Amino acid sequence: MIKLTNEDKLNIEKVAQTLKKHYGDHEDPWGLTIDKAQRSLELIYPFYKYYFQTRVFGVENVADKQYMVVSNHSGQIAIDGLLIGTAFAMEVDHPRILRAMVERFFTNLPFINKWASECGAVLGDRENCQNLLERGESLLVFPEGVRGVAKSTPDYYNVQEFTRGFYRMALKSNIEIIPVAVIGAEETFPYVYQAKWLAKKLGLPALPISANYLPLPSPVDIYIGKPVRVADDLSTLDTDHDIDPYIDEIEVTIQSMIDEGLKNRREMPLVNLIKGRKS
Amino acid sequence: MNILIIGASGGLANILTGLLHQSHPHAHITGVDSRPLKNDIHNPNFTFRKMRYTRSQFEKLFREKRFDYVYHLGRMSHVGGSNQQDIIKRLNLNLIGTNKILELSLQFGVKKIIVLSTHHVYGALSDNPVYLKEDAPLRASIKYPELRDVTEMDSLCTNWMWRFKDKISTVIFRPCNIIGPQINNSISQYLRSDYSPLPIDFNPMFQFVHELDMATILKRAIDDIDTGVYNVAPEQTVSLAKAKELVGSSHIDFPISLVSPLAFVLKKFWSFPDYLLDYIKHSCIIDGNALRRQIPDHHYRYTIDESLKLINL
Q: Which residues contact B39 (CB under 8 A, 6 or more apart)?
């Protein structure tokens, strides 16, 4: 079991105290409880820091304001969501709980749903998100949805088509969008075939057939891009045709951040070990 | 002024009667219920009649008294039984009875009718957004047809309200869980019980309104609230686990996802209707802003913490 150092414990405590000033001691209406989120952070952080050796680039792009964080989705079991959430709590100057939007399927899962809601995750419903935005919360959105997280190996690092809901929500709230690219989460499950036909028959959002069912310790890099303002000349009433170019722009930005990030991708410790022996 | 309270033997009606006597001392209040009056009300301006509101003598009452305001608090609750006969009885009383009340109110020139529905009409579903507004679909009976009476009674009143809005004013309240020492609904029984299962696999959030706050809002409906449907809920929410802790009752930690399959065994020991289990599994959080806009000077007298602590008084 990977353990926290005393310094890590102190840092988490400091972050939790800051968050309590904002959220208070009570649960919020979506079920977020800072005490429980802190306990989860104490479990996740060792994996974030030592197992996935997460590096974060671009923290200077995050100011003390509300954002909609939009990221590529990867890693089969949404490990990227956990790592981005941890980064925005632990690494940025103004710690915050990113309210991750989750699939409807997820909210019906016993235990996982409870744990996720206590840590701040919420149902990815437009009205739900709008209510969170009105309360000044920052959101974490994966506009690729299940298509992004549940990819077969040949599609890794190819951003799938974005859905439009996030941009309409950002327009309505006039909130800035921060593009984020995650590199390394795909390799936590390096060889995957998505049995889409079987998943459909079983009523599951995805059914990955993988060489491993526990995530491998692939080093993860999180790139935080510069905030993007929503178009001034658009409104939520505009057609998809009007909005699509702006969504495409964000999609292209994240794809280019991924392509750039891949140039500096670190190998898995095991691969390094094998390479070292060969040389 | 003549006021009729249907469902007068309930705890909430009892408090409302007291409040109306204070605010309208010259009003004559008639209470009607198929059950006997629980607490005697010693006021010369109060009369209680034990009768079923589906019977012809009920029409006679309307004819003779010429009520100005009617409170319909007589929805038959889900406490007590969930077998086929109970469900049929509930459907009959809640739908046919309500229809009769609405027709008589219109026929005999009632100025305003105030109906107490429930937030249960929205249904406790895993994909409920947090803050359900009054225009959200009523999905309670999607999974459990046993809850049909709840949604259909509400829909009946809402349709009726718009249809006759020029002839009679109608106010429909959909309150969150009403609790208090005088209330004995399903959730109160659940909270008070030392043997109720507490979900360890879900994290439902709840809203509670104290009986006195609810009665105050009902009272104000006469003068201050316009025709419409209104959710009733304070802004504060609380998890079910915290609510049990505040009440001070014990519980049995249990994975609620296993309760439904075991319901046929558990219901022999536990009176909580199995089709209401989803209400202690998924959140059904409502938005009370429309009502706040109607009565901006109203402040909930009891916080959720206080309401829960006072439930056993």
A: B14
List of residues 6+ apart from A56 with CB closer than 8 A: A87, A91, A221, A222, A224
Contact A125 B257 (CB under 8 A): no
Cβ distance of A131 and B131 shorter than 8 Å: yes
Q: What is the ipTM of this complex?
A: 0.85
Best B119, B125, B128, B131 member to test A by mutation, with max A CBs in 10 Å, is B131
Question: A55-278 belongs to which CATH class?
Answer: alpha beta
Provide, as residue numbers in chain A, all residues whose Cβ is less than 8 Å from the Cβ of B256: 110
Helix axes A6-23, A34-46, angle to 10 degrees: 150
The Cα–Cα gap between B36 and B155 comes to 29
Specify the pairing of strand A67-71 against strand A176-183.
parallel
Q: For residue range B96-120, what is the model confidence (pLDDT) as tens digits?
A: 889 999 999 999 999 999 999 999 9
Letter for the amino acid at B303?
T
Cα–Cα distance for residue pair B8/B18, rounded to 1 Å: 12
Total domains, chain B: 1
3-class secondary structure, B62? helix
d(CA A70, CA A57): 15
Could you tell me if B6 and B72 are in contact, meaning their C-beta atoms sit under 8 angstroms apart? yes
C-alpha distance from A231 to closest chain B C-alpha (Å): 27
Contacts of A24 in chain B (CB under 8 A): none
Confidence check: pLDDT of A279 > 60: no
Is A273 exposed, middle or buried, given 0-12, 13-18 or 19+ CB atoms closer than 10 A? exposed
Q: Which two tokens stand for residue A101?
A: 């939007």
| Residue-by-residue DSSP string for chain A | -----HHHHHHHHHHHHHHHHHH-SSPPTT---HHHHHHHHHHHHHIIIIIS--EEE-GGG--SS-EEEEE---SSS-HHHHHHHHHHHHTSSS----EEEE-GGGGGSTTHHHHHHHTT-EE--HHHHHHHHHTT--EEE-TTTHHHHS--GGGTT-PPPPPSHHHHHHHHHT-EEEEEEEESSGGGS-SEEE-HHHHHHHT-S--EEES-SS------EEEE---BPPPTT--TTS-HHHHHHHHHHHHHHHHHHHHHHHTTPPPPHHHHHHHHHH-
Contact (CB, 8 A) for A139 and A98: yes
Name the residue range of residue B109's domain: 2-183+209-233+287-297
Spatial separation of the C-alpha atoms in residues B302 and B140, rounded to whole Å:
28
| B255/A contact by beta carbon, under 8 A | yes
B106: CATH = 3.40.50.720
CB contact under 8 A, A128 and B130: yes
User: Each residue of A174-229: pLDDT tens digit?
Assistant: 999 999 999 999 888 888 888 888 888 888 888 888 888 889 999 999 999 999 99
Chain centroid, CA A17 distance in Å: 23
Residue A29 and residue B242: Cβ atoms within 8 Å? no
CA distance B239 to A122: 15
CA angle, B107 then B111 then B117, to 5°: 90
Alpha-carbon span B39 to B31, nearest angstrom: 12
